[in-house]
Amino acid sequence: MEFGDVQLTGLKDYQKVDEIPIQYGTAGFRTKGSRLKHVIFRMGALAAIRSACKKGATIGVMITASHNPEEDNGVKLVDPMGEMLGPEWEQYATEIANVPDSEVGTALQKLTKNLGVTTLANSRVVFARDTRPSSPILAEALEAGIKAAGAQCQNFGLLTTPQLHYIVRCINSNGEYGKPTEDGYFEKLTEAFVKLRNIRKAKKMKKLETYKACLYLDAANGVGAGKVPILQSKLGELLQINLVNDGSGKLNHECGADFVKVQQKPPTGVNMAPGQRWASLDGDADRIVFYFIGTTDKQFHLLDGDKIATLVAGYLKDLVQATGLSLNLGLVQTAYANGSSTRYITDQLQVPVACVPTGVKHLHHKAQEFDIGVYFEANGHGTAIVSDTSYSSLKKASQDSTVSEEQREACDLLLSVIDLINQTVGDAISDLLLVEMILAALDWDVEQWNQAYTDLPNRQLKVKVKDRSVIQTTDAERKASSPIGLQSAIDQSVAKYSHSRSFVRPSGTEDIVRVYAEADSQDAADKLANEVAVLVFKMAGGLGEEPKLH
Ligand code: G16
Prior knowledge:
Elements: E1 2-3, E2 6-7, E3 29-32, H1 37-53, E4 58-63, E5 72-78, H2 87-98, H3 104-114, E6 124-129, H4 135-148, E7 152-158, H5 161-172, H6 182-202, E8 214-218, H7 228-235, E9 240-244, H8 256-263, E10 278-281, E11 288-293, E12 300-303, H9 305-323, E13 329-333, H10 339-349, E14 353-355, H11 360-367, E15 372-376, E16 382-386, H12 388-398, H13 405-420, H14 428-442, H15 446-450, E17 458-463, E18 472-474, E19 479-482, H16 486-495, E20 501-506, E21 513-518, H17 522-539
Parallel strand pairs: 4-6, 6-7, 8-9, 8-10, 13-14, 13-15
Antiparallel strand pairs: 1-2, 3-5, 4-5, 10-11, 11-12, 15-16, 17-21, 18-19, 20-21
The chain binds 1,6-di-O-phosphono-alpha-D-glucopyranose (G16).
Residues 26-27, 66-67, 282, 286-287, 358-360, 377, 379, 381, 507-510, 514 line the site of 1,6-di-O-phosphono-alpha-D-glucopyranose.
């Protein structure tokens, strides 16, 4: 079988196991690991074509299913500047993944021809994987696909997803963004963290009284767990990390950021004392949420992506002001953002806020419209990005002797904060350091952070349906446009509860429909979520038992 000018060798080892269609979803392909060998082999070849279309720039491929159960797996493609694969290519990926085995070569050949690609010999692909049992064999399939296309490749072994995004950007910026290795990643982040944390000492400011440099971290038994000791070795006493779910248990099982956020409770089996600051990563360490037990009310409190976003945006807003530069700062959220967070951002922080559909690719894109764009999904996935012109203005002002000393210092400080942030994609390790740095700078404990605003009680549910694509949405996923009648039925339910809101959307990473509801009491949010889940079940072909209120 011919593909371009190379033989598509190895294809026989990477044939489809079934004919069930598969789609490039919110963050790549995701399904049972056992169904993915052929998809990943083909994505190796596609990544090579993408690289050729980007004039030989390096493309990244990450093998992971992130927050999904251990038996799932997936693949995400990373574009040259470390961002998610351009949406126009998601369609190519879906087409190539689904063609019959006998037509793979022809389909790839047709694509290269349509895109004007004449050779893949200069294409470069780098890849990494998470700790799932199926990941090594899928990494072999990927390498085979890249090599079959005649491209060059480099295997980075076990990395977190954001580490691979970082490495891709470093390679393509010729090292300007940092050294393209895991060591380079930790060096950049931790040097910035140490510098920022030591400013207090250098300025002989009073000692920290409230902030305690001690974090309890649930690593979801994922790939992030193995990275924490490396991080710890570089932080010394500046932050003591006590690791649980360190990889010895089952991945994402009753632990991790998704479990804690959706269930609104701690990982199973951990012993939390009131006032301790806890955080959970997800399986590939691109998300993080914080939480604690209140010292007075002894209740569980979650500090999710919205609370991280407001902490970061508030800190950056003050810092930008201190630089004297006129940089516009904006925040991007999705429909899952708690109503109280949006109100706080608008009324208190007075920062412009935008709402886009779920998926970091949408948030990242929108955030690029600001000089400094902070974006976070409520599930803890997010980062901040700075435009090239703003970065240059900061660099220039930090060395400009006509600018006041305070303003130069603020520019310098902001530049170090930018070094602490992985601007390519949401990164749990970078976000962890950023949050810890800000809490220390403000000398806050976790309870002070939580006091910014009170979340409206909310509930998320999952409904299994025959075909989740029957649910279609509009208005940044806040309204259902199909099936007909579903939205008006949801509106009627919402009208029964005060300060309430609810929406539904098909997940792009799991075979389910997600239901979100918020209201002025937990009881009302639970009831509303359940009513809407029942509507989905009845109007969108629910499978199994009808959802019940627990
Ligand atoms: C991925 C995406 C996120 C998204 C999440 C859930 O995260 O990168 O932007 O919020 O999936 O998506 P959905 O609701 O469509 O299932 P991760 O951490 O699983 O890669």
